[in-house]
Design brief:
The chain has 293 residues and is an alpha+beta fold. Residues 1-5 have low confidence and may be disordered. Helix content is 41%, strand content 14%. The strands form 3 sheets. It has a 5-stranded antiparallel β-sheet with strand order 1-2-3-5-4. It has a 3-stranded antiparallel β-sheet with strand order 6-8-9, covered by helices on one side. Strands 7-10 form a two-stranded antiparallel sheet.
Length: 293
């Protein structure tokens, strides 16, 4: 991926100046919706989108709360943060040791530590499964307008159903995006990442992220999922609210791909395929959705 040295680098340098870090030798790790940079000295800098100040404040607070409760998670550095540059909130984190992406068993291990914790006195807010979905649909300009209209209707239907969702497990602090991509497997064990969507809500939402990998995309095996359910103590696919939550997760996955396909032509076929799946134009589940980014 080509990294433009202009605005992103300028934001990085100013943020480092404000927080007392030296940006010399900074290297881009990932430039997407959020820009991630690595500084010498094992410092990770995360530049969020403009307008995400409250989310950044929450991420830092959650990281410190998890540390206080002994949950293995990426640690925020002890500086005054976030800082804001050109409307973008910037946060600073300790770099993880060499690691690989987590496994399904790692996800459930961390959820079993997170979900029982008492809800803290932090500005977590309520879980919104549809955050930024409307914006993603409008940005998905590579899709035909008729498909975007269908996505808008589907979004509205699911939002209405969410208001009257069936009762399930007691609400708790949820990660909000609990999948293997947000878990790092280090030599000392799995570590939880990315607290952008941490909130208070039904724990089933965190379980659905793995369940749809079995029922929707086919990227988790039946054995892996059985072990996941045995470790957590419940099978969310048996809950009467599963189709609603799975539908919301599928919509998120499809609109995420469609948003980025508008500027990345190599992802347009995958984005269109996901919409075609949701619209019943292709074979029955599980579908073989390919990862992007």
């Amino acid at each position: 991926m080509t990294i433009l040295p202009g605005p992103a680098r300028a934001v990085l340098e100013e943020a480092c100046r404000l927080a007392g870090f030296d940006p010399t030798g900074a290297e881009p790790v990932r430039i997407a919706e959020n820009a991630i940079w690595r500084l010498p000295g094992k410092v990770i800098v995360r530049i969020a989108r403009p307008g995400q100040w409250a989310a950044a404040v929450r991420e830092v607070a959650v990281a410190r709360w998890l540390a206080d409760n002994g949950v293995p998670a990426v640690r925020t550095l002890p500086v005054e943060q976030p800082v804001q540059v050109a409307g973008s909130p910037v946060t600073f984190w300790g770099e993880l040791p060499p690691h690989e992406i987590g496994a399904v068993a790692d996800v459930v291990l961390l959820l079993k530590q997170l979900h029982p914790l008492p809800v803290p006195d932090l500005p977590l807010g309520r879980l919104d499964p549809f955050v930024r979905v409307a914006e993603r649909i409008e940005a998905a300009t590579s899709l035909p307008e008729e498909d975007r209209s269908w996505l808008r209707v589907r979004h509205t239907e699911l939002r209405e159903q969410w208001k009257y969702r069936p009762e399930g497990l007691p609400e708790c602090v949820v990660h909000g995006d609990a999948w293997v991509g947000n878990v790092a497997r280090t030599p000392s064990g799995p570590v939880l990442l990315d607290f952008e969507r941490v909130s208070v809500g039904p724990p089933e939402w965190d379980l659905v992220s793995t369940a749809v990998k079995l029922t929707t995309t086919g990227t988790v095996t039946a054995d892996e999922y059985a072990e996941f359910c045995a470790a957590y103590g419940t099978d969310v696919t048996k809950w009467e609210g599963y189709e609603l939550l799975a539908g919301a997760r599928e919509l998120r996955m499809a609109t995420y791909a469609a948003q980025h396909a508008a500027t990345r032509p190599e992802w347009q076929a995958e984005a269109q395929y996901r919409v075609d799946c949701l619209r019943g134009r292709v074979e029955a589940r599980p579908w073989q959705w390919k990862g992007i980014m």
